[in-house]
Structure formats: C-alpha cells, structure tokens
Amino acid sequence: MVNSIEELNHVLQQGCNAIEADVTFAGNGTALYAYHGIPCDCFRVCDKSEKITDFLAYSRDITTPGHKNYTKRYSLLILDLKTSKLSDDHVKFTAGKSFAKLMSKYFFNGGKSDSHLNVLMSVDRVNDRRFIDGFNTEFRTSERMNNKIGWEISYDDPISVIENLWFDVRVIKNIWYSDGITNCLSLFRDQTRLIDIIRKRDGCNNARNPYCIRKVYQWTVDYKPQFRLALRRKVDGILTNEPRKLSEVLEESEFQNSFRLAQPEDDPWSVFKRN
C-alpha cells in the first residue's frame, strides 16, 4: 500500500522492486486518487494520498531511462482498483473506459513512453467484469500498451469462477492470481486456496490453454517465517510492508540460489519454469 509520491520514494529506497497503489473512484466512475483510508494494514498510516494522474506520471518518469530520477529496480506497479464500490455495471463500464484514457495519457504518454514499468490491473471481483470490458473497449487497438498490462481478480472468488471469466473475456492473456488478507490476520489465514492456485499454475499447459496463470503472489506477509514458507511453496511474489526483512530472507542459504527480485528485463507475463 503506497499511495503518495513521498511513500513511493521511501519504499524504493528500502529496496522494493514493485509497489501496490489503491485507486479510488468518484460516483460517476472517474478515477481520482491513490488512496486507501481507514481501516488498512496494521502499523500503517492509512490516509496518505496523491492525485492518481500525478502518481502515474511520476511512476512513468522515474522508470524512463535517461530521466534524472531514473530508478531501474522499480519493475511493477500493482493498481488495486476499488471497483466493487462502483454502483452498477453501467458505471463500471464507464469507469473502465475513463481509466483506459487516463492510463494512455498519464502513464503511456499517448503511446510515446519509454518507461520499462509494467502494470498489473487488480480488479476486486469477477462481478466487476464490466470495468474490464470498458477498459478493453478503449484500449484494444494498442498492442504495445497492452503488452505492458496484466490483470488479476484480487478478492477470493472461487478459482473456477475466475478461470471462466478469462475464458469469457478472451482477449486477456497476461493473467496473475493472488491470495491473502491484511497483515493483521495473515498469520491465521488458511493456505489451501493459495496452494491450489500454485498447483494450477504449475499444471497448466500454455500451448493448449492461453489463459494459464502466469504468476502467483501472496499478500500481505510481514514476518520472516511467513516469507520462508511462501518461498518454499514457490510463489512468484510477496506483497509486504517489510521489504528489508524479505531481502534478508532472500539472502539466506536456502533461498539465495533459487530466488531473486525481478528486474525490468524479466517478463512478468510468462510462467517461470522451475526445476
């Protein structure tokens, strides 16, 4: 949860290679702010905010080679889109179209951006599909920009229902799955769903099924024993408020030859083949 430019700079200095920002909408579907509000994760300040247009433009700038503040390690921006708060399907569709235009202007600079940053669009639930439809209606003509974008459903809808969504949408292949809960409760969360998602990722044949899971991440994990368990389960990513602790675990002998932080040249939309 990083919802201001000040916070963004701070976590990048701590060694983060990816961040998650929350996107809030007006009643008519217009995206307004990077903002979460109360309640949020334990031990966090919940009320930081930034105009979403400023946040996107800044993220674009600092990931563009040659910019004075270029930050190579910043590889992925997860946009936690608060779509479930939109009132109905019409507003969701309108919001999707509007957000596509906003992304095109402020993040992709009308298709002229050279930023290396990829974006994961995180929609709350399967029944927020009309946001996805609206976005794709506006965005489908730009292959270059679409190649920088992936999608996920962030809430714990049944896995089979999420799978059916991507089969129905058809045009989206850059698919991530996640599982988790706020750090206040993550120690007590049952891991069955996460394990099932990882099994589906590993058992899917990309040649036969273009909608295979590309990556799996767990959220929100802040303690070293949890990091170790997640890595042993072969997650692709971990959302945490404690990046330095995670970096320390990655340097442990058990993990240092098997895991590293992703870099801009790594493909976030391909399945990583493990031994």
Automatic annotation (TrEMBL):
Catalytic activity as recorded in UniProt: an N-(acyl)-sphingosylphosphoethanolamine = an N-(acyl)-sphingosyl-1,3-cyclic phosphate + ethanolamine
Q: Which UniProt keywords apply?
A: Disulfide bond, Lyase, Magnesium, Metal-binding
Q: Which InterPro entries match?
A: PLC-like_Pdiesterase_TIM-brl
Lyase keyword on record: yes
List where this protein forms a coiled coil: none
GO term, biological process aspect, one:
lipid metabolic process
Entry GO MF terms: lyase activity; metal ion binding; phosphoric diester hydrolase activity
Q: Does the keyword Metal-binding apply?
A: yes
| Name listed for the protein in its UniProt record | Sphingomyelin phosphodiesterase-like protein
Give the organism's phylogenetic lineage.
Eukaryota, Metazoa, Ecdysozoa, Arthropoda, Chelicerata
